[in-house]
Automatic annotation (TrEMBL):
Biased composition annotated in UniProt, kind: Basic and acidic residues: 120-134
Transmembrane regions listed in the UniProt entry: 42-58, 64-82
Taxonomic source organism: Pedococcus bigeumensis
Keywords from the UniProt entry: Membrane, Transmembrane, Transmembrane helix
Region (Disordered): 90-134
Pfam families for this protein: DUF3040
InterPro entries xrefs: DUF3040
Highest rank taxon of the organism: Bacteria
Protein name in UniProt: DUF3040 domain-containing protein
């Protein structure tokens, strides 16, 4: 029996809250999709290493540059296979109702033409933080 629209929305809110509170744990709990992605990356890495090794062997018989390119391909393939895929994290704060308010980067304030002394700038920054509620 499929989930109702309200249940799907609640499930999505819980997933977003989990990603916001503990992204490392949430990425470990992804399941088969993450394992399939890791397997695919490993297979591409192995193919890249084999192709790079073939180029190195061809480079031994021809020019050094082909061998150097093969070595670079092998290093890149190993790096690709061993690094986890980038996942856009849903960063934000969890609200009392369980929803996630996404964090938006604050625009950088423009420095006034007469910035003043170092201590004056620090005091202004402190006042802005206190006024914003941080």
């Amino acid at each position: 029996m499929p989930l109702s629209e309200h249940e799907q929305q609640l499930l999505e809110q819980m997933e977003q809250a989990l990603y916001a509170e503990d992204p490392k744990f949430a990425s470990q709990m992804q399941g088969a999709g993450a394992r399939a992605s890791a397997r695919r990356r490993m297979a591409i890495g192995v193919v890249g290493v084999v192709a790079g090794l073939a180029l190195v062997l061809v480079g031994v018989n021809t020019t050094m540059w082909i061998g150097a390119g093969g070595f670079a391909l092998m290093v890149g393939a190993v790096a690709f296979a061993l690094t986890p895929p980038r996942r856009k994290a849903a960063l934000g704060t969890v609200q009392p109702d369980g929803s996630v308010r996404r964090a938006t980067p604050a625009p950088k304030p423009k420095a006034p033409k007469s910035a003043g002394s170092f201590m004056h700038r620090i005091e202004e920054r402190w006042d802005r933080r206190r006024d914003d509620g941080y």
